[in-house]
């Protein structure tokens, strides 16, 4: 009984027991998540205000520091000051650290909230049905933290290596500077942060697949969400035969939205002289591919967003609002939430009663949770856009794009963020914070409050939010 | 047994039996409604193309005739040609006739579909619960038709009289011309049609309460919906002690939206030199009151819509999308649909399971019906706005406003409708048709398809759509 394996197992049981005792008993575990993010932003703001953080060695205005800290911790990428121009290398490192903390924090905390929901649901389920229907068989907090760190390090390391090689060989940077550029952009990409050390983001690399493709791969992996990565990992190690409903819905919806995004971008922008018009066909395809995926919710751009056709902007608004996978570094209401609502409506229009998704029945309470997340999110964006129109001279297309970008923690910008009055920038700060934590905490708070229900059929619940 | 009362009762029972036999047995009674409206539009288009219909005595292009006929039958009010400038008195009379047919048709048909839903629901209800919980105790088809005709005639007659008096005494029109103007605007107002014999709608009367207030009263009465008017009528005759859930939700939501609409309009436009800025305080208040109510969904304007602040336009977009009361001449998704969703979300956020509205429990199936109507409607507006942006150079704020105005059969316009290419105008034709009939037919089709359910608690269902 005192073998390392047994001791390890006992330790894991103790952690699991402790986590069961700590988290579900505290009335709103989501509150801890909110407090943690607020603290990280506060510390980041103070650090960024220090003279050492700015290129000029002067104190940065608190609104600019707060905006940048929020944008970094919430892995958004909207900026009010030029990242390479305003911040010193120390300031850039603070930004990079906050991105890493924010991305790591959201992946672990969202995974744990998801586990908590799955466990509660699982306990009720056991009366009647399979335990294998739980979406999140993630084990315990320790394995989540270890898994997130492992995935983050591997992806960021590989991406850093590829980017550093390219910056050295293709652009003649010194190895040291290329490694710095590679690390910054790799961490920013995997965490879907959208921060770049180039003032024009990746516009200068629009036709370079050696920069663009590693970035896309990194932000797609980060944006799929840890539970899906965890399942992929288990399949790759042949430990698991089936896909959970959550993974199938996430991957299917993600792929569908990617195809729609790329197709829309290519068709609306193909001849636009401000965007794809000046590239050859391979360049158009690469930039179109990049921008079809970036709204979910990486935030890098390889063409000038301010030059987009209004139709592209509207499609991008919708894609940014939907966002990426649950419990990952992507934002938005999440692809599963969107897919659930789509299935509910499809069921309703077909005149059927029970919502079936890919051979599973969807619990009725989940319909309403998904609806709530979508409509509360839409309401937030509406109020923010309205406030920005009152506070600034910009019109609907511009303020809506910026609001959705902030809510979805995307970071794409038509360029108005830095021109907004400070009150408008503070609106975006609130929106980034609410957009980063709102869907996750709202959905888990709703799910954890379900009480006194009896399930008389096998059901499976994907993650909402 | 052969007293007039008994014979009348037997006749009513026969009608009721026949209506039960005819309507529920045909698989989609909603199809008849759609066919009837399409036929009316086709006839109207042909009539408007006749040379006698135009001021110049020439054939009107089919797109212009189709657009005007659709706008009139769907009681929208968007125009591609200037109503007084393009159409002859005969043409104007055709428009007026189509408005009357469209308004009468939608009120009776929507009321009947609502009855059908209530009856099906009522039959199932009787197993367990009160029959008095039915929202629509309207009796039968005959009483609906008679009621709609009575209300229409009374309101239109009174409004015509007041307007005619004002046009004669206040503006020096001949009695004959004043009566024509009075009749046209009274019918247009009661049916929420938004057509005017003045090229600038009611802008010249913005500060004249003798024109504006009768118009507001007429379009509010028409827009509340026949079931609510019917209940008000019964209460006025002391035949009924309680309000149905449908009436309470409609009146409460209508009033709330009116207050929000007026407050938003006054605060965003108070000093706008293009709109309220040039009026004194009483004029500002009158025009603000008018425009706070017009988006639900009358379509008249007393200030230049093209000069509105972007924030006012966005608020108006939402109000136009919500629209007015069910089974009336107003469009949109209807105030009850909006209120139901709001209550569902409020319940969810509160962590409660059952949705209670004003002391009644809301059937779970209704949640999904309301959701479907809202999201399908939103999807239509999105696709239309996207199409208009591809087809024309106009930007999001303008095309969204025009799309929502068409979908909600509102008729307010920033002025771009007549400048759109014909393909864009045809998009609006489809949108007006879908917006007029979609929510009603979709909601009733969904409700009529509910099968095999058992209710074990007293429930009451307001009308969705
Ligand atoms: K981002
Ligand atoms: K109208």
TrEMBL record, chains A, B:
<protein>
    <submittedName>
        <fullName>Potassium uptake TrkH family protein</fullName>
    </submittedName>
</protein>
<keyword id="KW-0472">Membrane</keyword>
<keyword id="KW-0406">Ion transport</keyword>
<dbReference type="InterPro" id="IPR003445">
    <property type="entry name" value="Cat_transpt"/>
</dbReference>
<feature type="transmembrane region" description="Helical">
    <location>
        <begin position="62"/>
        <end position="81"/>
    </location>
</feature>
<keyword id="KW-0812">Transmembrane</keyword>
<keyword id="KW-0813">Transport</keyword>
<feature type="transmembrane region" description="Helical">
    <location>
        <begin position="93"/>
        <end position="118"/>
    </location>
</feature>
<feature type="transmembrane region" description="Helical">
    <location>
        <begin position="30"/>
        <end position="50"/>
    </location>
</feature>
<feature type="transmembrane region" description="Helical">
    <location>
        <begin position="370"/>
        <end position="391"/>
    </location>
</feature>
<dbReference type="GO" id="GO:0008324">
    <property type="term" value="F:monoatomic cation transmembrane transporter activity"/>
</dbReference>
<dbReference type="Pfam" id="PF02386">
    <property type="entry name" value="TrkH"/>
</dbReference>
<keyword id="KW-1003">Cell membrane</keyword>
<feature type="transmembrane region" description="Helical">
    <location>
        <begin position="210"/>
        <end position="230"/>
    </location>
</feature>
<feature type="transmembrane region" description="Helical">
    <location>
        <begin position="318"/>
        <end position="349"/>
    </location>
</feature>
<dbReference type="GO" id="GO:0005886">
    <property type="term" value="C:plasma membrane"/>
</dbReference>
<feature type="transmembrane region" description="Helical">
    <location>
        <begin position="426"/>
        <end position="448"/>
    </location>
</feature>
<keyword id="KW-1133">Transmembrane helix</keyword>
<dbReference type="GO" id="GO:0030001">
    <property type="term" value="P:metal ion transport"/>
</dbReference>
<feature type="transmembrane region" description="Helical">
    <location>
        <begin position="251"/>
        <end position="268"/>
    </location>
</feature>
């Amino acid at each position: 009984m005192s073998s390392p394996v047994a001791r390890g197992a006992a330790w894991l049981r103790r952690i699991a027991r402790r986590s069961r005792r700590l988290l579900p008993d505290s009335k709103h575990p989501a509150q801890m998540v909110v407090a943690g993010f607020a603290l990280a932003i506060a510390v980041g703001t103070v650090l960024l205000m220090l003279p050492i953080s700015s290129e000029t060695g002067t104190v940065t205005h608190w609104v600019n520091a707060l905006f940048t800290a929020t944008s970094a911790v919430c892995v958004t990428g909207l900026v009010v000051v030029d990242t390479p121009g305003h911040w010193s290398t120390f300031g850039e490192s603070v930004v990079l650290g906050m991105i890493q903390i924010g991305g790591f924090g959201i992946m672990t905390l969202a995974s744990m909230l998801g586990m908590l929901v799955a466990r509660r649901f699982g306990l009720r389920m056991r009366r009647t049905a399979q335990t294998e229907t739980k979406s999140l068989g993630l084990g315990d907090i320790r394995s989540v933290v270890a898994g997130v760190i492992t995935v983050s390090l591997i992806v960021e390391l590989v991406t850093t290596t590829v980017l550093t090689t390219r910056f050295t060989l293709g652009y003649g940077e010194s190895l040291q500077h290329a490694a710095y550029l590679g690390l910054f952009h790799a961490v920013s990409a995997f965490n879907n942060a959208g921060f770049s050390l180039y003032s024009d983001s990746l516009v200068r690399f629009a036709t370079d697949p050696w920069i663009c493709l590693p970035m896309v791969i990194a932000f797609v992996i980060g944006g799929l969400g840890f539970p899906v990565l965890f399942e992929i990992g288990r399949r790759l190690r042949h430990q698991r035969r089936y896909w959970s409903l959550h993974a199938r819905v996430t991957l299917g919806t993600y792929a569908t939205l990617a195809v729609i995004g790329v197709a829309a971008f290519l068709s609306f922008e193909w001849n636009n002289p401000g965007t794809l018009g000046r590239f050859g066909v391979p360049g158009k395809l690469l930039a179109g591919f990049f921008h079809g995926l970036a709204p979910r919710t990486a935030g890098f751009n390889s063409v000038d967003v301010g030059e987009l056709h209004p139709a592209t902007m509207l499609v991008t608004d919708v894609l940014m609002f939907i966002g990426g996978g649950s419990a990952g570094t992507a934002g938005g209401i999440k692809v599963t939430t969107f897919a659930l609502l789509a299935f509910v409506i499809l069921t309703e229009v077909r005149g059927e009663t029970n919502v079936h998704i890919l051979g599973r029945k969807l619990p009725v309470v989940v319909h309403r949770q998904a609806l709530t997340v979508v409509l509360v999110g839409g309401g937030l964006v509406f109020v923010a856009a309205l406030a920005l129109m009152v506070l600034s001279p910009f019109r609907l297309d511009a303020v809506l794009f910026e609001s959705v970008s902030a809510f979805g923690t995307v970071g794409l910008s038509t360029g108005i963020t830095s021109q907004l009055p400070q009150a408008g920038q503070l609106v975006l700060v609130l929106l980034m914070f609410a957009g980063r934590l709102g869907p996750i905490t709202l959905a888990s708070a709703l799910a954890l409050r379900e009480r006194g229900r009896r399930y008389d059929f096998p059901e499976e619940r994907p993650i909402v939010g």
